[in-house]
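Job type: complex structure
Entries:
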Amino acid sequence: MAGITSKTIHDIFHSMEYGPSSSSTATAQAWLESHSRALGLFIDGKFVRSADRQTCNVTDSSGGPVCSTVCAVDEDASLSVSSGASGFKAWSALPCHLRAKTLLRLVSSLQRHGQCLSELCDLAQSPSSPSALVRLLQYYSGWAQLRDSLIPDWTPRGVVVVVVSDDCSLYSLMLKVLPALAMGNAVVAIPGVGTAPPVLLLAQLFVEAGLPAGVLNVVTGSVLSLGSKVAQNPHVSYVTYSGNKKDGEILCRATAGMGVPVSLSLSLGATCPFIIFESADIDSAVDGVIETAFKKNRECQWMLCVQESVWDSVVARLKVRMAGMKSVPLLAEGDRKLVDAAVQEAQQQGATLIQPCPPSSSGAAYPPTVLCGVAPSCTCVVTPSPGPLLPLLSFRSHGEGVTLGNHSPHGQAASLWTEDLTLALEAAKSLSVGAVWVNSHSVMDPSLPLSGHKESGNCIDGGKEGLFQFLRPSSSPPLPRSSPASVDYSTFGTAASAAIIPEGSNSSSTPRSYLQYVGGKQCKSESGSSVCVLAPGGTVLAYCPDGGRKDVRNAVEAAIKVQPGWMKKSPVARAQSLFSLAETLELKRRDMAVSLHSQTGLSLEKADMEVELSIAQLCDWAARCDKERGGVPSVPQSGSALSIPEALGVVGVVLPDSSPLLSMVSLLAAAVAMGNAVIMVPSPKYPLPALEFIQVLQSSDLPGGVVSIITGGRDQLTQALANHSVIKAIWYWGSMEGCQFLQHTCASPLKSLWLHCQEKDGVRDWAQPHASLQEEMWRQAVQWKSVWIPTA
Amino acid sequence: MSARNPGMPLDLEWVSKVRVNTQAVLKRAQQIQGRNKNKKQWQAAWLLRAVTCIDLTTLAGDDTPGNVHRLCMKATQPVRYDLLKSMDMQDKGVTTAAVCVYPSRVADAVKSLKAANSSLPVASVATGFPAGQTSLKTRLEEVRMAVEDGAMEIDIVINRTLALTGQWEAMYEEVCQFREACGETHMKSILAIGELGTYTNVYKASLVAMMAGSDFIKTSTGKESVNATYPVAIVMVRAIRDYFLKTGHKVGFKPAGGIRTAKESLVWLTLMKEELGDEWLSPHLFRLGASSLLADIERQVHTHTHTHTHTHSFQHTSHDVTDLVLRVERLGTVGHHNGLVCLLVMTFNLIHVSVLLITTGSYLNDLPVILFHLPFLLPVSLFFFFSFSPPDLPSRDWLLRSLSPDAHGLKPRLPFPK
């Protein structure tokens, strides 16, 4: 108070400074006091606190103690999941409208205690606004109400584990917890240190609002180890993570082989382009930069890209606007060194600085700094350091701006500024990011799907699209649970295929040698060797190429040449290609049936039926080409929002043994219809129908390279697909070890995985295409982009 | 005022490149409105600063030398001396920035200010205010007349026809001529933003007005349907910044029309501070055109001095019962002042009774009159009771309700004693 009273009115009259912002934390303190400042775990609807647990201290911005949280041990982890399992029974049995009602009751409860929550967030240094949470709740209570009528044939997964890294915000956590609850799942939330107190408060409010005990459990402690501990429990059916990349990868590896699907939203720390075109309202754009780029807790690292013609005016305005800014506290003590090093390196590479004041010689604060004129290759752009640093790059043409924006390995979001609508939409289309904010930035609304492209994640949050991660088609079984086997990841799939030399050949018919299909051409494998295909009776039926890493490489190279063109083709043109494929298959109907018959021993009638169904599948997907579009979500702010499904790129498919033709055609059609290129690995047991299908592909008008078919050992080819950085997704039918290997390997570079274990999995009935199965397939075949164009 | 804006040749390329994104501007305006949370002495100091930036204005058809004189006096002493003294600001020269009148009243204002030995500048609107729909010749003549009469600042209105139809050269020429007619007198250009259609047009008109040598750009005449709004101000202020960055000349900004509350004046100051910096917070670069704002600021300053510095002065010239109620409300927030209030109300009550006795002669003879006035006495006695009871009892609200004249259907007969 002494500092406040010493300023006289006359002093202030001259300096015209702002007064101190006083924020009371009384209600939050009172809540903490009521828990003696020691928060327990929240399990089965109540706080649980065992005396013998280690604790972890939550501190406020000045380092003072706020409260302590418990570090959960194995016993707590299993307790929380078994409580979740019983909670799930009660919760999923409720009719939709009762779940919706509970969520709505929490809205009013949250409005009553909003003050306490926001104070608690401020205290624990994870700022969040209660109004944003209220919007989340309202949105998802709507989905809870409508689940059965708008998403029929899908059921909740069961107990879902939501893990976030320590630096993740409360909003990102709730963006996963609430849809999971709304869809009828039980949730075990594992918050970071700062988010733990507010989440515990929310859990308490939830129970007050009538959520059955056990539906939302909160366990605190070391996030990573706890995440895999909880996931180990056989009752857990899905793990979803939000936060930084490093922790996400560790979690992914730690849970590999548990038979639990894991998806990652790696939004934190992603480099996001902030592109200012010459046709922009420069002042507003600079306002945006000032507002978002130098915050202490920011979700993404902005990279400012400015068209050369307006470079000077942007720099001049930045200088004016930054003049009065104060130093920003760094998050950790050791960050100062990193910041200094990054600035020094940028300067050595010719960057000039814009700073409101020179940095103090030491200490955990740094003035907001713009690094003008760094090269895209500079370390501060590629791997941004912490602290309020903003690299500023220039570009000449519109195309160059987009290229610059796509430069980073991340694909979280982009903000672009122009008054030119055509340019805005074209740029939005070409940027490979999950969210494009036109003339605005950081617009978060649950109705906009938020999914990272490239290395920013393989998970979709928000919107209707984001609900499907918490659902599975009623007719398809979940991944069977297992405990991780000891798989040697470095040697998986490197064993040479066993050479089978047929004994006593049948002289009447010599087995035919098939070729594989790469880049639109039939060819032998790079290794030149073949493996033999056995008929049901055990005789050698044919020889097929023994493909390997080099064949996969060739196929990917061919695919990336044609895929962008294929994706840009009009949906109608893609539909035509698929229809023509169906027609060609019709013509070859007899050959295909015979091949199926001889390969699998299926009766000719049944084989003919499978061909018939395959033709139907092709026609289905041809018809869907121009029907499966995104939407125009309604957002509370005024403006237009778009959610657009886009092709993933190159998809690797390791095909199942069952219904070899039908399964291959269904998956191929789904992937290709949405604009992807596919590299297919036929089942080593029954490769002939796929190899026969090459004839059909060759006589269709599909561009060569959109579909490649490589035969050989399943493990060998899976390993080759998993290690290729260009491949964006892998759909896998195979062994448990294969699933484990993929989960472990595809954490970096990140791929979307759709895993099926043939050994334990009930055989999927390809012949009975449920609508939900097709829906699942097309949702696997696309990634989402949301575009937000605010208008007055 | 400081260095003037010499203007520059019309740069149409610059004007044509202007882009304004409406929603971003609206968002920024909201952000600025939520920014100011100044309390205590910060609020008081900022309010006083706002006072020094006011162009105290009267632009009415019934302006006479009499009310212009009163306006001038108010401008030289905008905040009561005792209030300034309690803040230790009495000798810091807190006056409004100028008085602003119609051309025909300029001479009156100059005379009044001279008589009061004040050097406050007199500003005059001119050029066919407010519509600007008279011939160029008469508009120019009007400027010259006002300057001759002693106006130090001229608020001209631009020709909206030219701005709306994009005839920037013609508008530039006109404003240049006004500037010439002004001579040494400072010129403020009123853009009448309510009639310019789009924010882009506002930005362009601002640029052209500055290129033609305006020392200030002003939002509106106060006579259009849309007056000074924050978003439009952001657009104009950005034009000022743009002009400053390109030419190095600082042009002032004057919002006018519809600014009535102290709170609004604080938002205006915040807007200037955020967008242009501290230099644009003084009267040579910032003016608030207002006629009724000052009264509200004074009231807020008064609140400040009474709730925060605990000095009380009751030397008021004209206070009716309503004002007393306001005062009681304010003091009621400070518990230990209840006794003081009680004393005041008692005085009021005594005088009331004595008047009653004088008018009725003998109260014994006229019982109905006494009964009629009983409602006045009753609340006071009850108040006495409540003022010694714990502060959480609803005594204050109840007192306020019963003290207000409407509760009795009676107008109070006596002013509050001096």
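Summary: The interface with chain A takes residues 19-28, 31, 36-46, 48-49, 87-89, 92, 238, 241-242, 245, 269, 273, 277-278, 281 of chain B (CB under 8 Å). Strands of chain B lie at 54-57, 98-101, 122-125, 153-157, 186-190, 216-218, 252-254, 288-290.
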